[in-house]
Amino acid sequence: MAGFVTGSDTRDEPPPNRHSASKICKVCGDEIGYKDNGELFVACHVCGFPVCRPCYEYERSEGNQCCPQCNTRYKRHKGCPRVAGDEEDSFDDDFDDEFQVKNHQDDSADHRIHATTNSENGDHYNPQQWHPNGPAFSSFAGSVAGKDFEADKEAYSAEEWKDRVEKWKVRQEKRGLFNKEDGNNDQAEEDDYLLAEARQPMWRKVPIPSSKISPYRIVIVLRLVILMFFFRFRILTPAYDAFALWLISVICEIWFALSWILDQFPKWQPINRETYLERLSLRFEREGEPNRLAPIDFFVSTVDPLKEPPIITANTVLSILAVDYPVEKVSCYVSDDGASMLLFDTLSETAEFARRWVPFCKKHNIEPRAPEFYFSQKIDYLKDKVHPSFVKERRAMKREYEEFKVRINALVSKALKKPEDGWVMQDGTPWPGNNTRDHPGMIQVYLGSAGALDVDGKELPRLVYVSREKRPGYQHHKKAGAMNALVRVSAVLTNAPFMLNLDCDHYVNNSKAVREAMCFLMDPNLGKKLCYVQFPQRFDGIDRHDRYANRNVVFFDINMRGLDGIQGPVYVGTGTVFNRQALYGYDPPVSEKRPKMTCDCWPKWCCCCCCGGSRKKSKKKGVVRSLFGGLYTKKKKMMGKNYVRKGSSSMFDLEEIEEGLEGYDELEKSSLMSQKNFEKRFGQSPVFIASTLVEDGGLPEGTNTSSLIKEAIHVISCGYEEKTEWGKEIGWIYGSVTEDILTGFKMHCRGWKSLYCMPKRPAFKGSAPINLSDRLHQVLRWALGSVEIFLSRHCPLWYAYGGKLKYLERFAYINTIVYPFTSIPLLAYCTVPAICLLTGKFIIPTLNNFASIWFMALFLSIIVTGILELRWSGVSLEDWWRNEQFWVIGGVSAHLFAVFQGLLKVLAGVDTNFTVTAKAADDSEFGELYLFKWTTLLIPPTTLIILNMVGVVAGISDAINNGYGSWGPLFGKLFFSFWVIVHLYPFLKGLMGRQNRTPTIVVLWSILLASIFSLIWVRIDPFLPKQVGPILKQCGVEC
């Protein structure tokens, strides 16, 4: 534990006048930054048209170099790049004044200055804000010399580095900033290039090209118009001979249209994002200075190591320990919610193997850094490897990993035979977790303490085992409760400002994934408003055709990118980097709203009458908000410096926290203390409460290791969350098995934003169930969670109106909780074609030429929408089609059961579970794909397939018997029936298996239900007119 990060929360407060008079750029809508002297940046000195500095520089370098309002040519401001045409009198060289440059001959501090930079959206940025565990620094680009960037030069070969510098010089020549005749000093050129790189933003937003997105939007609008005319025709022309079927079909079609609107319009403005990792290093990793990258805590959750193989969890932990990030800033917490001694021993073996694995990964820069997946790659592992000893060291490491696997397998085989007296630890004491439902909290630190070094003598990241206390009679809230326990433990032991949670089967596939996220989270202005950065989920071990849409490419590559253009993607449960302050239930920083624009065409008294009342109300609201929001922020900053007791003691008292309020008057103090009652909000832990007040994370100076461990045990006790806001407003939210959707929804309702990061190399990879039964069971659990949210107070249909959740974002959340209910109309719509074929009726009357146009237009708009969506997203046609097929398969099986199971659970309190048991397996590659497991979920889709097949046979037989005239109406009926069969084909293929080993019970039940339904229908035949009384016919005999 001696390796824990400690440090003070030293940071400079920005000048108070900068936020009080900020203006909005009329070009991009962002706030206008400030100059070095604190004055507001003014682009045009003639008319004063408000334009931020990035827009001003872009207009000068890429545009017509004129003010948008008065068309006056922009003059060059100090510190801005020169362009061709600048006046000669403004050519005094001020490049050295823009950044702090080391002078090797004169190191006097008199020549040092403080530099400020502007972020991509034009906000002022003070570089002293990010250094939670180190001293204050003057600037990002300050104190730069050629030797400071040797590490950056080493990242490229000599040819690559020379090529980059030459490209930069060409760009500078085009702007008139560089002259070939003056370029004799190569070292100075490289310094200038690195200085220019350091001032650039660490990421940029890449909108979809208008040539791809504009036709897509036009077709969406056209499809909406066509839908209106289509429904007008369907409602005004009922099929009287099959009125019940017609009514059911119209209701189903209206529901499908509403579902399409909820799914489609959140994808209106999809975007991409690019990151620049080298600029992140230039800003925060300066040679000769302490590393200023923010610390991060990894969370790995597991429950039962017998169902979640320990070797997979070990690979996930090893990939975390080997990430490309400063080791002193990485901590890995593993939650064992099953209190298993098997996982405890596995982590002990993993920590020992990591001493050799981590330096091997970093020395040879291998990817991925999970040994199981690295050694199983079918690629040329010698590519780009130049170290002479690589082959020898790789063979030795592979042999050591195989020995490591043997030791883990021995632990697993031993765990299968539990002794009667329970497990005993190596020191002879009984294992505290022998009773998994009644045991104390346990914490073990394997790495990160003094002496836990790798084979090269370097420090390793921290590895901490955590098993929270469990007692009978307490509600533990499954995974959400375990994650909240990890939040509290990590806050007490390391308190990193950011947290990354992974499932135990999701390993780090890209060692630079954390740096990708930090490009957003450490942005000086955007990072403060982000609650999390979500990475897409990618999977290993899935068959090439992805029969059951396990990759879920349509959701991750289309829907999530669309949400990124609104308020951010939803939280999907894994592969997410969180801002700790957002999980604590705090609101994001409030930026001043853009002032309402008024026109000069109306008299002033009219504007006053129309807008005066609302302005007064908003002004009063602003006063109240600043009192309870702004003062509390200031209070947290004060406490971050004043609540620490100087000395060796690490325990804190609430009295010390209250001392932070001494600077306020009685009214402000009473308002703040009444607003934030810390004990009722966070629980009875002064150490944890003190950690929540440190915005940038880090531990106070003089912390005592043993005291922190005792406090960490206290915060994972089973009664700690009682009468607090944990699970209600703080941390992972309780109330649904899909706690991820609920947690992200609460953050977005508070006004936080999230981002979607899609690096070229997938950041994380996991495993997914590839056989039919397990896949349906997984979808059932997700759908059940959505139904629980729909029936709770957090339902997006009525929760948090008047808040900060954007309407299109609300549409997306509504879609995530109502989609299981689509199973009811989908089941009815898949049954209607078979009924039509069996009875000879049809839901659509005879079409005339005009009506057929709307049907053709609707089908064409659906096809064109899909094609254009694939065009801008890059998703393959096969992935899109698999997604459409599984939407029907899951809808008529798992989603349907989830609706009834959720209604029984929430309304009647009956908890029903659909268990899955294995029947047969195959040992070949993708053998699990053909593994069949019996489950009740298989009956409805099987019944639908048989019913539609019987209907097709009956319809064709009837057409043959009735002659040529009956074939025309038959084609419409066959189209809908074949639509059902084609969508259910992957289900039928999975049901039959490789050797047609379908259980008898499935076939019997399905044939029985389909036959009974068909016979009853034919016997009753509700569409025949019912006659009362005798049938009277003219006999033809004259009486």
From TrEMBL:
Stated name of the protein: Cellulose synthase
GO molecular function, one term: zinc ion binding
Cofactor note: Binds 2 Zn(2+) ions per subunit.
Any one of the GO CC terms: plasma membrane
Catalytic residues (positions): 337, 740
Annotated keywords: Cell membrane, Cell wall biogenesis/degradation, Cellulose biosynthesis, Glycosyltransferase, Manganese, Membrane, Metal-binding, Transferase, Transmembrane, Transmembrane helix, Zinc, Zinc-finger
GO BP terms in the entry: cell wall organization; cellulose biosynthetic process
Cellular compartments annotated: Cell membrane
Entry-linked InterPro entries: Cellulose_synth, CES_Znf_RING, Nucleotide-diphossugar_trans, Znf_RING/FYVE/PHD
Region (Disordered): 1-21
Ranges that cross the membrane: 214-231, 243-262, 817-838, 850-868, 888-908, 929-950, 970-988, 1000-1020
Membrane topology: Multi-pass membrane protein
Gene3D superfamilies: Spore Coat Polysaccharide Biosynthesis Protein SpsA, Chain A (3.90.550.10), Zinc/RING finger domain, C3HC4 (zinc finger) (3.30.40.10)
CDD domains, A to Z: mRING-HC-C4C4_CesA (cd16617)
Involved pathway(s): Glycan metabolism; plant cellulose biosynthesis
Cofactor: Mn(2+); Zn(2+)
Domain Cellulose synthase RING-type zinc finger per the UniProt entry, residue ranges: 16-89
Reactions that this protein is recorded to catalyse: [(1->4)-beta-D-glucosyl](n) + UDP-alpha-D-glucose = [(1->4)-beta-D-glucosyl](n+1) + UDP + H(+)
Residues that hold Mn(2+) according to the record: 479, 503
Enzyme class, UniProt record, top EC level: transferase
The protein's Enzyme Commission number: 2.4.1.12
PANTHER family tied to this protein: X-BOX TRANSCRIPTION FACTOR-RELATED
Protein family membership: Belongs to the glycosyltransferase 2 family. Plant cellulose synthase subfamily.
